[in-house]
Write a structure and sequence with these properties.
With 70 residues, this protein is of the alpha+beta class. The protein contains 1 helix and 3 strands. The chain has one domain. The longest helix is centred in the middle third of the chain and has 11 residues.
């Protein structure tokens, strides 16, 4: 699943001031991604806005305990 987020960046501090969801990645995925983006820092004056594509993958492990066949 691929999502897209738009970051608004304060040019004076380089801090991410706002994260907008342009294409949803799912409720929990969106919340987690937005929390991470808000911790990002950029070189002050270098960028005002950034669109970030994110691909989410789900790995699953299947453990077969006491499995049998018939």
């Amino acid at each position: 699943m691929t999502a897209m987020y738009r970051l608004a960046i304060d040019t004076k501090t380089g801090s991410v001031t706002q994260v907008s969801v342009m294409k949803h990645g799912g409720g929990t995925n969106d919340n987690n991604a937005m929390a991470v983006f808000k911790r990002w820092k950029f070189k002050p004056g270098s960028i005002k806005q950034l669109d970030v594509p994110v691909t989410f993958q789900r790995d699953a492990a299947i453990l077969l305990k006491n499995a049998g066949s018939q």
